[in-house]
Amino acid sequence: MDALVAQLQMQYRNYTASLYQQGFLDDQFTELKKLQDDASPDFVAEVLSLFFEDCVKLIGNMARALDQTGTVDFSQVGASVHQLKGSSSSVGAKRVKGLCVTFKEYCEANNYEGCVRCLQQIDIEYKALKTKLQDMFNLEKQIVQAGGKVPQVDN
Amino acid sequence: MTVEQDCVALDQFPVGMRVLAVDDDQTCLRILESLLHRCQYHVTTTNQAQKALELLRENKNKFDLVISDVDMPDMDGFKLLELVGLEMDLPVIMLSAHSDPKYVMKGVTHGACDYLLKPVRIEELKNIWQHVVRSRFDKNRGSNNGDKKDGSGNEGVANSDQNNGRANRKRKDQYNEDEDEERDDNDDPSSQKKPRVVWTVELHKKFVAAVNQLGFEKAMPKKILDLMNVEKLTRENVASHLQKFRLYLKRISGNQQAIMANSDLHFLQMSNGLDGFHHRPIPAGSGQFHGGAAAAAGMRPFPPNGILGRLNTPSGIGGVRSLSSSPSSGMFLQNPTDLGKFHHVSSLPLNHIDGGNILQGLPMPLEFDQLQTNNNKSIIPGNSMAAFPSFPSTQQSSLPNNNSHLVLQGHPQASPSAFPGHQINKRLEHWSNAVSSSSSTLPPPPAQNSNSIMSHQFDDGSSSYSIPFCDSTIPLAPAMDTNPRAFYRTTDLDSNANVQPGGVYYDSLQMRQSGNYGPTTDALLSSNAKEGFIVGQQKLQSGFMGAEAGSLDDIVNSTMKQEQSQGDLSEGDLGYGGFSSLRTCL
């Protein structure tokens, strides 16, 4: 059992570290983890779920705004991007946030193609992050189930 | 005190500070909520600005601070910011992913006390409580200035706690320690309230003796102060009194008659704020004149001395004063023998004049009646005084309440508090004017004398109505309510909504603290600066309240109790400060 726990923990550590290294996550995510305690043991998972919900909603808004026959209301797109930027930065979704910054610039420049490209990228990015985090959470569960403690990985 | 209290309060204060967080982004809201919880604040969240406004409007005292996102679909964050600032006067912190300085500027111009960028870090949130304290502190400071200057309502009552608390405390100490208090409304306009000093007969005697010793022309406040050797009397107190004294002398020098028996008392009355009300020759037959009213009007807390029973004696006011002053105030007294008449002056009115509560005391109405029927044809009907006789029943309406904040809370007993004295003064004036032909020498009673304690402003409806000791006319009620102890009448007074500057937070602390009635009251009073409450009044009120009970003796007793409780309250000032801190802490 212990060996298993140790192994899982090792796996977890490596995996999480790679997420930071690859830029999926940043310090804000670490901060978020600090807020998790016994009183709210699933805090991080909760918040990330909310975040992904927001992603779906906002990306949908952006897509709709961009997919208009006629003039595209870039400010509307921009508003959604702005919000996504806020929430992604709050959860530590580094790549998504980076994309939002670029996306915003395109919106301000009324660059339709640029916006569409960004939108696509963001879509891919948040889904990738979702998958990665899912794996991470699974590892955590396994560790706990194996009787171990989830190691602290601060990047 | 304030400082200590603040420190104490602050130790607890940030903990439990009530924050309302508004953000349409659920992710951010959830994180914010968690961060705030980490800081040990009490958090309420909503993702709609409209809902936030509702929550805030529902109970203005429910929150200490608002944190709001800038971009929200149902309402612009800046708009919300403005509304909150206007309606609730709470500190608002803006939150946004926009780092653009122009947004920050917009936040500032719309009144935000801070602007945070997302992602918010916990370190930033750990210090946001400073905005609550600062806002209250500023309000307090503002209100102090206001009070000091004209006794009219102050803004931002909430913060008055600190400064007022300090002032209150001092005041309480003064009350407790000796009767020598002086009320200097116009002394030096510092931002802190100064303890009021009442120039009692004893004190005045000393003063006069010192002046005589130094030579009237050469008498300087500092020297007088040294000679008088009275604790807690400041040079400013003496200087102000000296000034009044000199003016008085000038005034009476042309009027022998006026000076007569009353001179000493007269001066004291005047110096205590009865300017313009001056002479009242007290005709022997005017026993009915309760003078007490006049006395009450202008007299400050008079040492409780069983005189109360003598309300009915003539020249109530003058009488009281003359009691002890006759022998020594040679300078003023031209007719010592007349003073004897005043022996009976009831101290009752004097004691509680400030609140006018005394007047409200049961005895008063009777006296007024007599006064009216017998002597006061000139009594001004317009005066609420006229209503006085019926005082017990309904005073408020009768009281000309120039200050809307005044007690007129519909509290029969409460209302007169500030006014009665005032009214009585006027009545006395009229009475004496009517009676004495020499009244012409005196300036018209209703002279708006912002300097006089018993200013007639009351009648004039000036906002600077000032009852001795009172800075403003806020009904003490609120304070009383919160502080069960000292006030007899707590329940009677309606508490102004204003009483609650900060809201619950403070309140709870206050309650905890209050053993001291005084402080609380003061605090409340101060906090009602906006309303312009009468700090001193409070004290009186409490005493007064007791007085209502009925006989003069009761009144005396209550006065005494008041003095006592005042002593207890000495910490009250701290309490006041504490009060405020309580409010924030809560």
UniProtKB/TrEMBL annotation, chain A:
Function: Functions as a two-component phosphorelay mediators between cytokinin sensor histidine kinases and response regulators (B-type ARRs). Plays an important role in propagating cytokinin signal transduction.
Recorded domain comment: Histidine-containing phosphotransfer domain (HPt) contains an active histidine that mediates the phosphotransfer.
This protein's record includes keyword Protease: no
PROSITE patterns hit by this protein: HPT
Residue list for modification Phosphohistidine: 82
Keyword set, alphabetical order: Acetylation, Cytokinin signaling pathway, Cytoplasm, Nucleus, Phosphoprotein, Two-component regulatory system
UniProt gene name: LOC108851620
GO cellular component, one term: cytosol
GO MF assignments: histidine phosphotransfer kinase activity; protein histidine kinase binding
Pfam families linked: Hpt
Family matches, as Gene3D superfamilies: HPT domain
Keyword Cytoplasm: yes
Coiled-coil residue windows: none
HPt domain residues: 40-147
Entry-linked PANTHER family: HISTIDINE-CONTAINING PHOSPHOTRANSFER PROTEIN-RELATED (PTHR28242:SF26), PHOSPHORELAY INTERMEDIATE PROTEIN YPD1 (PTHR28242)
The organism's place on the tree of life at top rank: Eukaryota
Protein name (database record): Histidine-containing phosphotransfer protein
Cellular localisation: Cytoplasm, Cytosol; Nucleus
Annotated organism of origin: Raphanus sativus
SUPFAM superfamilies (UniProt xref): Histidine-containing phosphotransfer domain, HPT domain
One GO term of the biological process aspect: phosphorelay signal transduction system
InterPro entries: AHP1-5/YPD1 (IPR045871), HPT_dom_sf (IPR036641), Sig_transdc_His_kin_Hpt_dom (IPR008207)
UniProtKB/TrEMBL annotation, chain B:
GO BP field: callus formation; cytokinin-activated signaling pathway; maintenance of shoot apical meristem identity; phosphorelay signal transduction system; primary root development; regulation of anthocyanin metabolic process; regulation of chlorophyll biosynthetic process; regulation of cytokinin-activated signaling pathway
Stretches the record annotates as Disordered: 139-196, 433-458
Natural source organism: Raphanus sativus (Radish)
SMART domains, per the entry: REC (SM00448)
Transmembrane segments: none
A GO term from the CC aspect: nucleus
Subunit structure: Binds the target DNA as a monomer.
SUPFAM superfamilies per record: CheY-like (SSF52172), Homeodomain-like (SSF46689)
Main subcellular localisation: nucleus
UniProt domain HTH myb-type: residue ranges: 191-250
Biased composition (Basic and acidic residues): 139-152
Keyword presence, Oxidoreductase: no
UniProt subcellular location: Nucleus
UniProt keyword annotations, A-Z: Activator, Cytokinin signaling pathway, DNA-binding, Nucleus, Phosphoprotein, Transcription, Transcription regulation, Two-component regulatory system
Entry similarity comment: Belongs to the ARR family. Type-B subfamily.
Domain Response regulatory: 18-133
Compositional bias ranges of the Acidic residues kind: 176-188
Protein task: Transcriptional activator that binds specific DNA sequence.
Protein name: Two-component response regulator
Keyword Nucleus applies: yes
GO MF term set: DNA binding; DNA-binding transcription factor activity
Biased composition (Polar residues): 157-166, 448-458
Gene: LOC108850804
InterPro entries: ARR-like, CheY-like_superfamily, Homeodomain-like_sf, Myb_dom, Myb_dom_plants, Response_reg_B-typ_pln, SANT/Myb, Sig_transdc_resp-reg_receiver
Record Pfam families: Myb_DNA-binding, Response_reg
Positions of post-translational 4-aspartylphosphate modification: 69
